[in-house]
Amino acid sequence: MSPSVRKQAITAQDVATRAGVSRAVVSRALSSNGSISPATKEKVLRAAQELGYQVNFLAQGLNRQRSHLIGVIVARIGDPFRSSLLEGLLHEIQRRGYQALVTEITGEQDLTATLRRFTQFRVSGVIVTSGQPPQEIVNECVSQQIPVVGINRPPDIPLVDFVCSDNHAGARQAAEQLYRSGCRRFGWLNHAGSTWAGLQRGEAFLQALQHSGVDPRDICRFDASVEGYGGGLQAAQTCEAVPDGIFCANAQLACGFLDGMRLRGKEAPRDFHLIGFDNTPQSGQLSYRLTTLHQDVAEIARRALTRLLERAKNPLQPSRVEWVKVEMIHRQTSPQIG
Amino acid sequence: MSPSVRKQAITAQDVATRAGVSRAVVSRALSSNGSISPATKEKVLRAAQELGYQVNFLAQGLNRQRSHLIGVIVARIGDPFRSSLLEGLLHEIQRRGYQALVTEITGEQDLTATLRRFTQFRVSGVIVTSGQPPQEIVNECVSQQIPVVGINRPPDIPLVDFVCSDNHAGARQAAEQLYRSGCRRFGWLNHAGSTWAGLQRGEAFLQALQHSGVDPRDICRFDASVEGYGGGLQAAQTCEAVPDGIFCANAQLACGFLDGMRLRGKEAPRDFHLIGFDNTPQSGQLSYRLTTLHQDVAEIARRALTRLLERAKNPLQPSRVEWVKVEMIHRQTSPQIG
DNA sequence: CTGTTAGCGCTTTCAA
DNA sequence: TTGAAAGCGCTAACAG
Question: Is 0.90 surpassed by the pTM of this model?
Answer without folding.
Answer: yes
